[in-house]
Amino acid sequence: MPVAARSLKALVAFLTYYFRYLRVSEALEYLRLAGADPLAAVRLISEDRTYSGRSFSFASRTTKTALKCAALAACHPKPRALVNRSYSFASRMEVVSRLLAAEGGSLSCTAVEDIAGLLTKSRRKLRGLAGVTPPQFHLELTRPPPFVPTKSLQSVLLDRVCGLYVDALARLPAADLRLRYHRSLLKAGHCYGPFRDPVSNIVLNTVWYEAMFPPREELSVAMICSRSLVLVACRSLRGLGFVWLG
């Protein structure tokens, strides 16, 4: 496989492993908009999909895992060494950027030797890279976001709705949840209702259903199956769709 094709596979692998629900076709479209710059593509995806609680960091384990997956997708003979060298660059980003900013379009022999010297020096520890921000994240976004297929959007929304149910579970009293409210939450704990806060609607609908339709016999449970939680989240997501359409 040509080196350009392996590089493209690595870029796509990095994005699809960094973002859980990103499809290959979407990754290619974001790379096209970002001019094949993976970090610029990360910025575009984050802005487009409003990952407000998730900022890019070289110190993130997600970033390091995505880089390893990219190296493996490119069939690199030493993927771990490649990732370590990438972090060496990241820890000295300003110095390397100045060296790569060649005048006249070509690097001098001295600049190449300096870059090679930086790669052989020991880098900062992973947690020391937490404050390093790529220059792509300081630029203004001028490119329009690509079309995102409905299936991908549903996956993203479902993941967020499941997070709402986890928050609701944390609000309910643990003893009552194990004894009573697990049943009503799975049957009618929808996230839509009179409140603007969906977690409050889940709690309200759960308590209301338990009060109006109490079980014939009590059953205590130690946990709620994640599959059951996903099913009630799917029903809530469908209900939200009908609310907006209605």
UniProtKB/TrEMBL annotation:
InterPro entries: PIR2-like_helical
Domain of life where this protein originates: Eukaryota
UniProt signal peptide: none
Domain PIR2-like helical: start-end pairs: 2-45, 160-240
UniProt-listed Pfam families: PIR2-like_helical (PF20235)
Family matches, as PANTHER family: EXPRESSED PROTEIN-RELATED, OS03G0697833 PROTEIN
Descriptive protein name: PIR2-like helical domain-containing protein
Organism expressing this protein natively: Panicum virgatum
Species lineage: Eukaryota, Viridiplantae, Streptophyta, Embryophyta, Tracheophyta
